[in-house]
Amino acid sequence: MSDLERLENINLVEHIFTQAPVGVALVSLDGKWIDVNPAACQIIGFSREELITLPALDYILTEAIPPTELASKISSGFENEKQYLHRNGNVVWACVYISLYCDQQTGEPAYYIVHMIDITSSKVAELKLLESVERYTSLKKYNHDAIISFGLDGIIINGNQMAEHLTGYTISELIGTRISRIVGEEAIANLAFVDQEYTAIERDINVVRHKDGNVVEILATLAPIIIHDHKVGFYLIAKDMTEQKRLIIEKEAAERTNKAKSEFLAMMSHEIRTPMNGVIGMTDLLLDTELCDEQMQYASIIKQSGEALLTIINDILDFSKVESGRMELSIEPMELNSLLSDVYYLNLPRANNKDLHVEISVDESIPDKLMGDGNKLRQVLINLLSNAIKFTQKGTISLSAKKIDQDDDEVCLEFEVLDTGIGIPEDKADRLFEPFYQVDHYMTRQIEGTGLGLAISKKMVELMGGEISYEPRRDQTGSRFVFTAYFSLQTNLELIEDRHAQKYGDEIDNGLRILVVEDNEVNQIVLVKMMNKLGYKAVVVPNGKEALKACLEDSYDIVFMDIQMPIMDGVESTRLIHEQLADDSPYIVAVTAHAIKGDREKYMSLGMDEYISKPLSMNSLSEVIEKFQAQRLT
After folding, report:
1. Left, alpha or beta for 465 (phi > 0: left; psi -120 to 50: alpha)?
2. For the chain, which has fewer Cβ within 10 Å, the N-terminal or C-terminal residue?
3. Is 210 within 8 Å of 242 (Cβ atoms)?
4. Which pTM does this prediction carry?
5. Are 399 and 340 in contact (CB under 8 A)?
């Protein structure tokens, strides 16, 4: 070969070396760079000068091949994939092929020739594909629903673990069999002819036939398998509805139970409030007659006891309170001395029967006129004092009230009830305020009770911002109950006059036409007498049918309409009165013993103009009449 030809060959090799789009490098047998072309430098991210100073084997071998094994690995050429961190921070993948160049004359190894091909884009695509496959595999494997894939011919291709659980077959048993084996031929007969809308077919697939012969109810979803824009099969996604159906049944049963409970409470409210209306109403009328001091005291105690009982009934029968466990404070003016006196006289007869001495002491620094929920305070005190009398056989019971703290707007009071009774065992004291808990076993106990008193008292005390506690008496046998409560101070220091004295004077009949619709004879008498005391006359009818007839035959200003009556109830009667009299309809007031939360809104929406609950008082009747007259004047 002439020198010219050699020169041309050298130039050709140099051109290929420098211009080749793949990286080319020459590496010595001891692992040093001999030369690298621009493409190799570009792939790795270093200049030629920088790369020459670095160990070559770090850039051409993977960690799995030690440098000592390089010669044996590449006797006939060796290929691997290598990951680089480019200078710009990106990860670069290259396919590295290493071959051994031998001297042509001696045949001895001379150096390594390294070819590098940038495969970053294809590697990234491969990794994304692998990630997608892994995601799909995980989704299929850990999905809570059964997933079964099958071709257009109906042959099952694959399934997940839930498919095994749902059908009872292993995946290997399912693959290659027809999907109709588990869902029925008729369910998928038209699947091949439907292009997009699978809803109708999904509705037909509502059961899966288990291997053991049973049928499992499912909710099915069909999704097409699309490959290269061609539909090649379907995914059947089946949700086992066994548990959901059980929950639905339980939910419906719970709703029926709640409805029955609500109806029972409404009925009990009516049945209890109706006689209570007679007791309190007639007592109210009795107090308005000429009585001696002793009779007046007895009648007052009857009324106070009835009102206290009514308060307890209200708390127990209010369905929303029972369900939510919440109570609400009713902040009204209250006179502490009068309240404590009520509690004392209410419990005095039972104490006298057991020959017990009851004493009450009140801190003189306590303001007598306070703002708070007197009914709840009264109920707590009655409960504690009643318990003290119940569990004390001899000795003294004391109730005291003292001031703990006071500022411009609020006062904190502490109430203490001491008895000389049997006391409470130390190991049972910590459960005293739990609902339905009683110290003595229900089969052997000597004292009656529900076990709710202290639990309700605790809730009421906490609602008043205080705390209640028990401790045994240190000086002698007996119990000590202490609780605190916060009350607001009255800004108006004038004595609160009895509203009856203001409103129930000897008024004359002003011509107001009033119709009372009530089926209970006692309540008829109570309502009429109360109307008379207020200065009004009333006509009475026993049911809704008679009320409709009365309204059509005569003109009435106000109708006090009982809700629950025979022949025709108050709701139906009200509807017919409005329907037939239209704008001439009277002002209709719902009068009901149903005092469940939400009843007011319910009856107002049914056409009533106002709502009052039994037991009735002259005060509540007067307020309704005054409201009607105020509206009539506007």
Report:
1. left
2. C
3. no
4. 0.38
5. yes
3-state secondary structure of 94: strand
Residue 336 is given by DSSP the state H
Element (H, E) at 523: helix 521-533
Nearest-CA neighbor of 74 among 35, 112, 40, 25?
112
What is the rounded (10 degree) CA torsion for 226, 229, 230, 235?
10
Q: What is the DSSP letter of 110?
A: E
Task: Characterize 96-117 residue by residue with b for buried, 16 or more Cβ atoms within 10 angstroms of its Cβ, and e for exposed.
Answer: bbbebeeeeeeeeebbbbbbbb
Beta pairing class for 514-517 and 558-562: parallel
pLDDT tens sequence across 316-344: 655 444 444 555 677 888 888 888 888 88
Model confidence pLDDT, tens digit, residues 479-529 = 999 999 999 887 544 433 343 333 333 444 567 899 999 888 777 888 888
Residues 117, 22: contact at Cβ < 8 Å?
yes
Quick one: how many helices (H) and strands (E) in the chain?
Answer: 22, 22
**Tens digit of each residue's pLDDT (9 = 90 or more) over 306-316:** 877 776 676 56
Residue whose entry in the numeric block shows the structure tokens 């006071």 = 406
Nearest to 94 by CA among 81, 108, 85: 81
Indicate the length of the chain as a whole number: 634
What is the distance between the alpha carbons of residues 270 and 264, in angstroms, rounded to a whole number? 10
The whole-angstrom separation of Cα 159 and Cα 498 is 82
Percentage of residues in the chain having pLDDT higher than 90: 17
Q: CB atoms < 10 A from the CB of 2, how many?
A: 7
Strand partners, 96: 80, 116
Q: Is 214 helix (H, G, I), strand (E, B) or coil?
A: coil
Q: What is the mean pLDDT of residues 347-372?
A: 87
Q: For residue range 38-69, what is the model confidence (pLDDT) as tens digits?
A: 999 988 888 888 888 888 888 887 765 666 66
With contact defined as beta carbons under 8 Å apart, do 199 and 222 qualify?
A: no
Q: What count of other Cβ atoms lies within 10 Å of the Cβ of residue 49?
A: 8
What are the φ/ψ torsions at residue 549 (nearest 5 degrees)?
A: -60, -45
Q: Would you say 135 and 117 are in contact if contact means Cβ atoms under 8 Å apart?
A: no
Distance, in Å, from the CA atom of 236 to the CA atom of 149, rounded to the nearest integer, reads 6
